[in-house]
Amino acid sequence: MFLNSGNGLFTKASTSSQLTHISADGYPGEPRQPIIADLDNDGDQDIVITYVNDVHRVYRNRGDGTFDDVSQIAQLAGDESVAGAAITFDVNNDGLLDLYITYFGNYLKGTLPTLARRNVNGLANQLFINRGNFQFVNATESSGLGNTGWGQAAAHTDFTGDGLQDVIAGNDFGINAFYRNNGDSTFTDISDQIGTSKPSFTMGIGLSDLNGDLLPDVYISNIVTMNKDQKYVLPSADTPAVFNPDKLANMRVIEANDLFLSSMAEDQGLIRYQNSDAVQRGYAETGWSWGAEFFDADHDGDDDLYVLNGMNEFHIYSSEASYYSNLQVEGPLEAYMPVSPRERNVFFTNQDGRLNRNSRESGLEDLGNSRSLLTIDIDSDGDLDVVVNNYHGTAKVYRNNLPEAAKSSTKFQLKGDPAQGVNLDAIGAKLVVTLKSGVKLWREVRGAGGYMSMQSKTLHVGQPSSDIAQLDITWPNGKVQRLLGPFSDSKISIAYDP
Fold first, then answer.
1. Would you state the pLDDT for residue 8?
2. Mean pLDDT highest for which of 314-318, 334-338, 352-356, 454-458?
3. Of 43, 187, 315, 397, which one is least surrounded by beta carbons within 10 A?
């Protein structure tokens, strides 16, 4: 754990050792998703870390930056299974943050995905309801959230526009589930009805409002793979896939990230998603994508997109791969493909609603093996910087160098009221900022997302507060609070008072 010193520098916290878990075999465990949130509404941030083949860890913040391990009280399980992404939000609007943990297929016991594009042989995702004092109850069966795809990503957002938090369960080897919150602690998968039920190998989920309809648009980072030379005898949809390292070295990877833009069907009052081409394609976008996050990097009022790429350990891009040869013409086929275990991350600038590649010019075109990212104003100069976590490599920090004249921004800190059924962190709240020009900007407070990332709960708008005419907050319980300008502070705190 690293603490911000306030000048853009970080120091390792002396209490970091309290968050280091040693497994029963005497070695550090395999951590996956961190969640930082106020689980007991006492005003400080607690920590949850999911693990592979180990009990998920829960740490209570004592209020002085030190922690108590309360994992045995929480009873989130996790041993003998492969957990991944997790999110926290208030499922039942009792003011306490609940936990939703996704699970991969149990390769620990030899389970592999099948050749079916709609794999359902993974472990069921798990929902835990917070009963207070770090005691959680498993409510998976009654909630309808026990998706059995091979979970790799998760997000919560209000994609139905009813003020309640819905859930997106992203699956590697399967179909992503879009769960509508029914308002009674149960959820219904409506992906078939809204146009998102396409097979994919999902790694991350990015959310933004690109088309200005105040509904979330969804970016799915994923890969489509073809193990060209693998042969099966009388295969069926139930045939387990074979992962042969020699064959994987010559595996073809095709870029298949999806951008779903929202619209509301007025005749039925149900959201619809259309797979959009409003994102630039090209050779450099071909790859194995992981984390993807939207943020207003240039303070022009719309969200840009940063997508991380990274290889697996098989060096799947190889100039030795046979499909680089043209069998009809003697000699190799000219192709643009990296010949290394690394890939370039891709940055897209939003220009009139279209995401255009601007990686090299931005300085974010890093060649590496990246996984997750965080956007946050590290040096408190008004613009959002970027932190990238790399696989088998050091983390990288990118400082945003916007000109001083463009750095003006406004930060919002929302505070819920647990007595009114709104968690203190206000996770699940939606903020609509109306500028004096009439433009509306959409933001949400989230309890994790992307690819195993935890974003700041401080909402950032790349516009000065003097340009803001109105604020509308939809709290997690569905109640709406409106504040009218003028505003003057660059940091605005808003307490629950609808």
1. 79
2. 454-458
3. 43
Q: Show the tokens assigned to 16.
A: 């970091």
Strands 491-495 and 410-415: parallel
What confidence tens digit (pLDDT) does each residue in 78-126 have?
999 999 899 999 999 999 999 999 999 888 888 888 877 788 999 999 9
Sheet containing 177-181: which strands, arranged edge to edge?
A: 150-157, 166-172, 177-181, 187-189
370-383 pLDDT tens trace: 999 999 999 999 99
Contact 367, 344 (CB under 8 A): yes
| CA–CA gap between residue 430 and residue 163 (Å, rounded) | 8
Please say whether the beta carbons of 457 and 89 come within 8 A.
no
| 3-state SS, residue 232 | coil
Are the beta carbons of 359 and 344 closer than 8 angstroms? yes
What gap in Å lies between CA 262 and CA 208, rounded to an integer?
A: 10
**Contact call for residues 241 and 112 (beta carbons, < 8 A):** yes
Distance of CA 198 to the CA centre of its chain: 19
Between 284 and 168, residue with greater pLDDT: 168
Per DSSP (E only), the strands in 17-172 are 30-37, 46-52, 57-61, 67-69, 83-89, 98-103, 126-130, 136-138, 150-157, 166-172
Straight-line distance from the first to the last Cα atom of the chain, in angstroms, rounded to the nearest whole number: 36
